[in-house]
Request: fold
Amino acid sequence: MNTTLYDSVRGLSWPARRRALGTLPGSHRSRLRGAAPELSEYRLYRQGDDPRQLDWKLLARSDRAYIRLAEDRSLLATWFVVDASASMAFPETTRAKWRRALEMTLGLASVALAAGDPVGLLVAHPAPPPRAPARSRRGTLGTMAAALAGIAPAGSRPLAPLLADANTGARVVVVSDFLGDEDGTRHAAAALLAAHSDVHAVHVVAREELDPGPTAIRAVDPEDPSLVRPLDPAIRERYRESFARWRREQAAAWRHAGATWTMVTTDEEPALAVRRVIGASTGAGAAGLP
Amino acid sequence: MTLLAPAWLAWAGLAALAVVAIHLVAWRIPRTVPLPTARFVPEPHSRYAARTLRLSDVALMALRVVILLTGGLALARPVFPRTPAGTAVVVAVERSGGMPDTALVRARLADVAGDASHRAFIAFDSVAHPAGGESETLGIVGRPGAPATASLSVALLAAIREANRLARDYASVRILVASTFAPAMFDAATSSIRALWPDSIRLLPISTAPVATAGDEQTVVTSGDDPVAAALELARFNGLVHGRARVLRSDPSGMDSARADSGLAVVFWPRAPHGTSERVDGVVADGITAIGQFLPQPIADSGLVVARWADGTPAAVQVARGPGCIRTIGFDVADAGDFVLTPAFQRLAAMLVAPCQARPQATMASDSMLRVTAAAPDSAIARGVPDERQSPNRIAALLLVAAMLLAGLEMIARRRAGSTMPAASGAV
Reply:
């Protein structure tokens, strides 16, 4: 992984889309309100409030009991679920999709780590690296990079079980081409969203998939060798329409479930792609039209 | 095999290559490439790819290639040149009424044309009669009712045409014309037609005079080697001498006068005395001219002049003796040399020893005309061998017909292949 990407995304803020459930102080708005030094608002004291939050000076001046409310900030664990199935090793010569998935994972992880968020990695691969708890300590990014670098995409392991393993209330980033069990993955993501998690779908698409080129080929699905179909210029347009329609449907389904959907292509600047993913979570950037 | 227009075959080859290329493009199985989004490729198109792998297309392609190559080969006009070998002779025989018995003609032809491996005979009079064999031709010649005149131009035209045809098959072709060569046979076109044949033409003069019979004989009274006797013998062999005569190379006797009185032509042709100087001169007798080295001798100025020197002075005189005559020749020829063997001297000698009342008239063209006709022309016109490019090419026609038939077969095969094509043959 080149350091240019890390330099390009340094300083980015990736706020959580929901209030974090964490208790450890961090950079994300927490669902808890308490004794944070930053005043948010005053509210009349109600029975059951913590008397320690009463503003005694204001009570003395106005003879009314107000309590001080403050915005708590907490950490947000971020889990990266990376698809390392055979379809990600495309094109065969450059494996641009897999490299783009690595860049997106490590770029977003560096942003999360910069905010102090613990980062964890789950890889859908027949021989995945051992699952470890999300960490924010120094060297985590290097460990992730080393683990991903040692993986050669293969097989067709589904993503849904990995999503089930992710901690609820965390931020889950799914980096995949979603050409396997896209329905199962989306349903698992919907369950996470229901459990107050924040789910981001990063759809990695190769430029060659968008435009296969004018040469006639016999296209074989790398995850299903029995699926072989001739593709020549005469039907290329129909293929492109079919693929675009599927992307639109997937994006709509994921967004309808509450997740963000960002399509990144292999010929796109990686730092820009990272910014678009972050922008999709904050609503500030385009998520990329499928 | 030689192609007269090979460019057509080259074009046909290129067209065949194009056909093969088109078929290969249709047959080539596309490269298998992993594509994760392969499931989005419309499925029905796979049937088309499967159809292109049909084996019948191979036969169709081969048929199309064969059609193109056959057509191109036909347009290239192939010819199979034959290697000429052997010799051939074209014999044109006159069949006019002036021709003598065919036995003489047959004998002369056997001498001059016997070594040829092929002989073609043409009988001609005012028109040419291409005939097959020698017997058939001579049968036509000897048949009664032949026209009185003949045309040498006709004979040459027919003979040259036949010779050109034979020139394709034989290494050497000669033309032989057996005719009386009467002056009337030559016309304005003769020289032009003669120039069409670049080689020399063998002329075989046949005398129009009746052939000497057993009773017609010449008696030459001489001693030792006598050139005049040799010339007369050769002239007799050539059919130029006829009638009875007695040639004396020494002084005549009383018996000779008696023989003259009885009607015999006594020719006194004295030998020149030793030491007589030779003189190059010409002797003319009834249109026959012989030019050579003579040994002039004094001659009496009385009598009928039957031959004159070139300056008009008498060279031979004749004195009538009843039904016969005594003829005196005023020149001799040298023993050495071949002057006496020339046709001109033979005809002159035959004229001088002819019977008294029936001296032959000049029924044959002059030597100069015959020589010009026989010799090869100085500027020969190219041999009129027909140009193969303009001649019909039977092989090309057959190939063209074959190509058209194959084209029809290709249409049938194409329709049959289309009708038997399955609607869906499954995936690749």
User: Anything to note?
Assistant: Chain A touches chain B at residues 87-88, 90, 92, 97, 177, 179, 206, 208-209, 212, 215-223, 227-232, 234-235, 238-239, 242-243, 246 (CB under 8 Å). The first strand of chain A starts at residue 25 and ends at 33.
